[in-house]
């Protein structure tokens, strides 16, 4: 297994069969070996610095019906809410005062947020905070829509591909959604010029080592600027309620392998890592992650943005969320840094990178 990790480190790619072998033969020693190398690569680039981004979960209304997600439209137990643009802006103001220079606006696919409403919101935020970056995470839209949002000032977009295995994608999504359209969205985003993030859930019901191998091959080919991955965690009001949660250890191993394959990538230690394990996010950083996304949503709505059971921080306000994550990061000898944290920023600092 170590030989495969060394080869990945040298060549920055593996064949599908090699990935499958590596992922099915994984154990604690192999994970530790990968984590050490991943941490070394992160240290060379970012030092012991972690970028923090404030996430505003601005609507839990969603037209989609993904089988794993607590916000699916068929979940009649969900208490639905949407924040008005002025309320979202207020969250950003609070975040700005706390030091945030990236705002991630995430929500369900809520038809209320037309291009017009979202574009106004994006230009409102970039107008008030010119040195801040706006990241959108609002699902599948048309190419024209992505273009208009880019023109309004959004520069980053997160759209997890969820799984690169089309058959598994079909099993956990409603028939009207398609893997092909997901891929189309990701291609459009990149062509338009967004710093694009994709990513997958680890441990989806029925997911095999080969399915995950496909994810890794896809990440190597797509070369995203950001990767969001976390374990699948069941939600009690979804059809997958009785399925076992994905493994945090396997997720950490995949984070390390992602860092080794794409050393510059922005890699968040996602909230779901803490859903299965108290110190999951700090372990994510020790496995090679370099981004953390504390919650900036108003406390009143936090408990209603429940994609899965066991989400941490439901009663904390923005300042508390930041404080507790800062303490966790400090406790392992790292620090949260203020800055936009653009892809390639560390190269700019060293006078090498000329992108973005
Ligand atoms: N467990 C883990 N992650 C989930 N997501 C949605 N539902 C779940 C769940 N039950 C993830 C998806 C989505 C992101 C916003 O949250 O990957 O893209």
Descriptive report:
Helices cover 45% and strands 11% of the residues. The protein has a six-stranded parallel sheet. Strands 10-1-11 form a three-stranded parallel sheet, with helices on one face. It has a two-stranded parallel sheet with strand order 7-9. Helix 2 crosses helix 9 (209-222), helix 4 (85-98) packs parallel to helix 5 and helix 6 (143-151) packs parallel to helix 8 (179-192). The protein is globular, with a radius of gyration of 19 Å. The protein is α/β, with parallel strands linked by helices and 356 residues long.
Task: Give the helix level as a range of percent.
Answer: 40-55%
Q: For the largest sheet, list the strands in their spatial order.
A: 2-3-4-5-6-8
Q: pLDDT below 50 for ≥5 consecutive residues: which ranges?
A: 352-356
Structural shape: globular
Cα gyration radius (Å):
19 Å
User: Could you give the order of the helices and strands?
Assistant: HHHEEHEHEHEHHEEHEEHHHEHHEH
Distance between the termini: 37 Å
Main sheet attributes: strand count, strand direction, barrel closure: 6 strands, parallel
Mean pLDDT reading: 95
Q: Specify the structural class.
A: alpha/beta
Attached small molecules:
5'-deoxyadenosine
Helices, by number, come to 15
């Amino acid at each position: 297994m170590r030989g495969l990790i060394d080869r990945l480190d040298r060549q920055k790619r593996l064949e599908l069969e090699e990935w499958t072998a590596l992922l099915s033969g994984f154990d604690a020693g192999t994970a530790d070996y990968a984590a050490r190398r991943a941490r070394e690569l992160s240290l060379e680039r970012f030092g012991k610095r972690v970028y923090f981004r404030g996430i505003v979960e601005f609507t839990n209304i969603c037209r989609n019906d993904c089988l794993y997600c607590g916000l699916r439209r068929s979940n009649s137990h969900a208490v639905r809410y949407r924040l008005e643009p002025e309320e979202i802006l207020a969250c950003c103001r609070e975040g700005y005062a706390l030091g945030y220079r990236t705002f991630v606006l995430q929500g369900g696919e809520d038809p209320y947020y037309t291009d017009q409403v979202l574009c106004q919101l994006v230009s409102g935020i970039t107008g008030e905070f010119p040195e801040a970056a706006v990241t959108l995470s609002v699902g599948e839209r048309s190419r024209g829509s992505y273009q208009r949002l880019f023109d309004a000032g959004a520069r980053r977009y997160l759209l997890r591909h969820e799984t690169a295995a089309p058959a598994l994608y079909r099993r956990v999504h409603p028939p009207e959604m398609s893997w092909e359209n997901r891929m189309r969205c990701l291609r459009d985003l990149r062509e338009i010029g967004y710093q694009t993030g994709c990513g997958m859930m680890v441990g989806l019901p029925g997911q095999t080592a080969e399915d995950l191998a496909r994810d890794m091959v896809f990440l190597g080919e797509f070369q995203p600027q950001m990767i969001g991955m976390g374990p699948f965690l069941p939600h009690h009001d979804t059809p997958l309620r009785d399925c076992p949660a994905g493994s945090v250890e396997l997720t950490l191993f995949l984070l390390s392998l992602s860092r080794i394959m794409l050393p510059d990538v922005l890699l968040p230690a996602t909230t779901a890592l803490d859903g299965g394990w108290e110190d999951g996010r700090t372990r994510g950083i020790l496995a090679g992650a370099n981004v953390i996304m504390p919650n900036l949503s108003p406390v009143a709505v936090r408990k209603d943005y429940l994609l899965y059971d066991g989400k941490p921080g439901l009663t904390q306000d923005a300042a508390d969320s930041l404080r507790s994550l800062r303490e966790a990061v400090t406790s392992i000898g790292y620090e949260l840094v203020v800055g936009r944290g653009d892809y390639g920023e560390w190269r700019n600092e060293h006078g090498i990178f000329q992108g973005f």
